C-alpha cells in the first residue's frame, strides 16, 4: 500500500496454534463473502484505488529458502512475519526495545514468543486490541456467527491457544477489550470529526472508507457488524496518545479459556488465582478520542509520502521479463 517498500511487512501464518498445517478450527466463523473475507481482501473495493508495493506472494520457493529452484524475481518475495521480527530485532541498539500493537488473532506474536526465547527481553510492552472480559454485567461478546459462545471476542476466539500464550505471559500487556471498543463505535461522531479535519491523503482515505462501511451497515443486513472495525482505531490512538488522554486502567488477573470447546474457547475470565496481571483499559473520554483521531489523520507534518501513480501505471503495463517473447 502507498507504493512504497521501505516499511517491512511480514506475511503471517494461516495456521492456528495446536492445529494441523494450514488449519484453523474456527475459520468458518468468519463470513466468507460480503461483509467478510472477500471484502476485507479487497478493502471493500477501495484497494484498486491505492498504489501497490512491488512485493508479491511467492511463498518460500527460492534456493535461498530451501527450494530446488528460484521463482521469478525472488528478491520481491514477501517476507514472513517471523523474518521481519528477526530483522527488526537485529537492528536494535542495546538500549532499545520494541512496542507491539495487535489488532487480530495473536497467532504471530505467540509464535514469536515460542520460537525466540529472548523475545520477551526486547519487548517493552504489548497493546492487545481484543478480548471480552466475562463479568457481572453479563454483556455478550461479538462472535455473532457462533451463537453458542456468548462471551468470546473474534480475535481471541480464532486462536484461543495463542491468546493464552500471550496474555498469560510475563510481558507488560495492556488489553483494550470489547467493552472499551464499544465506547468508540459511533460512525456518525467519527465521520463528523473527520469532515472538519485538515485534508491529507490519510484523512481523505479514512473518511472515504468509513463512510462506505457506515453506508453498507445501514443498507444491508450482511454488514450489520461493521462497527467492529472502529475498535482497531482505538488501539492505535491509545498507543500514541494514551498518556495524554483522560482514561482509566485497572490491573486484573485474567485467564483465557482454550479447552477446544466451541461454546467457551476464547473467553476471558477474571481469575483471582492467576499470577499474571494485565492492564485493562476501562474507560476514556470518547469525545476527546474522536477529536484526536481526526487531528492525527489531518496533521500534514505526519502525512506519509505516497508512491507515484505514474510509476505504478508504467510498471503495471510492462510485461514481466520472464513472459516476453524473444
From TrEMBL:
InterPro entries, sorted: Inosine/uridine_hydrolase_dom, Ribo_hydro-like
Region (Disordered): 54-75
GO molecular function: hydrolase activity, hydrolyzing N-glycosyl compounds
Pfam families recorded: IU_nuc_hydro
Classification via PROSITE patterns: PROKAR_LIPOPROTEIN (PS51257)
Inosine/uridine-preferring nucleoside hydrolase domain boundaries: 2-290
Family from the record: Belongs to the IUNH family.
Protein name: Inosine/uridine-preferring nucleoside hydrolase domain-containing protein
